[in-house]
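Re: that backbone. Tokens:
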């Protein structure tokens, strides 16, 4: 998945016992594979904290932080690109994807507002509002005036001799000088603390107190204006809650579709035909976890988890054609009996979840109402059960 929404959709993926739903899901996956082949694909993108941003939208009066607004805007922009990309394709080639994206709303205006107000680094532009521009202009002037006043103390021979270092520093949001402790009374001003050794004092000269006070007041005004701007941008999305919910649903569906399509290409999958007569015909079937391209993407539990698989699995044909309804597989140990059984069961479940299966064209699968697996040997000597008896009890 490319987004947290798609990740949850895939985690909830389950086989369907409805033949029509299975056929539709298979057709949707086939369309997504075609889209990845014919067009740029489905370029969804989302920040890792997208869920946090969406949760914050539920809280009335809360403003999203600039990075989260940018992340939300980027995500919705990518959804918009995907939707437009699908709508530009011939409708007869992608009817299901076209129906999937139909409820999506465009947030072009809100996205543009965010881009105009916030730079890519997450800082709010001065021109985000006339009030903010005015506040920041005054801040720059006052800071320049303050720095000039403080630097005059550094340049003056009369005052420079009292300084520990010829620097202007910040202490609790106020610009101060670093004065030697023994010269505390030589420069009139307010002490804002001392160094860890106590040899230096952070002193705000009396001549800069009013300027510093003005700067602090302007910073408070800036914070208030920033909050107002961010709240206004946030409310742009919050005010379209129903449309946003529909668009998120579309994004989750698109993400699940592209994930299925990429998996199909990864394992060279095909869409099996739905057999109405109960026949099961898997041609050149391969267990997906034995396919090198799939195995390479599996997490290794530790460094000794074994090398990645390089050899392709040996394909197997598994045929069960009515009126035959039971298949008995015999053979030597390590001959592939269990893998064949697991492959048949897993591919049937994959197909009913809308996934293409790693098998040759022409493969056919019924839609099972239920699938049971009894693999392994857990006989109990105490219960006087043989291996065969244990399996029979389990199957019953």
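Recovered sequence:
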């Amino acid at each position: 998945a490319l987004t947290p929404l798609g990740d949850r959709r895939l985690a909830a993926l389950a086989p369907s016992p409805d033949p029509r739903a299975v056929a539709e899901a298979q057709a949707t996956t086939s369309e997504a594979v075609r889209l990845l082949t014919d067009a740029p694909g489905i370029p969804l993108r989302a920040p890792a904290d997208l869920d946090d941003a969406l949760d914050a939208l539920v809280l009335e009066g809360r403003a999203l932080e600039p990075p989260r607004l940018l992340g939300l805007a980027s995500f919705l922009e990518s959804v918009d690109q995907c939707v437009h990309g699908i709508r530009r394709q011939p409708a007869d080639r992608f009817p299901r994807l076209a129906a999937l994206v139909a409820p999506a709303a465009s947030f072009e205006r809100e996205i543009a507002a965010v881009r105009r107000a916030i730079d890519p680094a997450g800082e709010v532009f001065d021109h985000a509002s006339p009030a903010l521009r005015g506040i920041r202009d005054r801040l720059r002037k006052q800071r320049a005036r303050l720095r000039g006043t403080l630097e005059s103390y550094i340049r003056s021979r009369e005052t420079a001799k009292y300084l520990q270092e010829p620097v202007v520093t910040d202490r609790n949001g106020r610009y101060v000088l670093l004065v030697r402790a023994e010269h505390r009374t030589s420069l009139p001003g307010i002490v804002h603390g001392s160094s860890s050794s106590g040899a230096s004092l952070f002193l705000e000269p009396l001549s800069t107190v009013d300027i510093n006070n003005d700067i602090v007041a302007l910073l408070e005004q800036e914070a208030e204006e920033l909050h107002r701007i961010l709240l206004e941008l946030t409310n742009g999305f919050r005010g379209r809650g129903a449309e946003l919910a529909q668009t998120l649903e579309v994004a989750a569906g698109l993400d699940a579709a592209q994930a299925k399509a990429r998996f199909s290409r990864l394992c060279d999958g095909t869409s099996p035909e739905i057999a109405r007569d109960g026949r099961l015909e898997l041609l050149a079937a391969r267990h997906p976890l034995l396919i090198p391209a799939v195995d390479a993407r599996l997490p290794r539990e530790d460094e000794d988890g074994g090398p990645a698989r390089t050899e392709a699995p040996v394909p197997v044909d598994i045929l069960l054609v009515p009126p035959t309804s039971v298949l008995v597989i015999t053979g030597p140990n390590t001959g592939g009996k269990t893998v064949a059984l697991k492959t048949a069961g897993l591919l049937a479940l994959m197909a009913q979840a809308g996934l293409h299966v790693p098998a040759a064209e022409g493969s056919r699968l019924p839609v099972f109402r239920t699938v049971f697996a009894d693999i392994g040997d857990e006989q109990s000597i105490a219960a006087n059960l043989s291996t065969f008896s244990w399996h029979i009890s389990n199957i019953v």
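Strands lie at 163-171, 174-180, 189-194, 200-205, 273-274, 280-285, 316-320, 364-365. The chain has 13 helices and eight strands.
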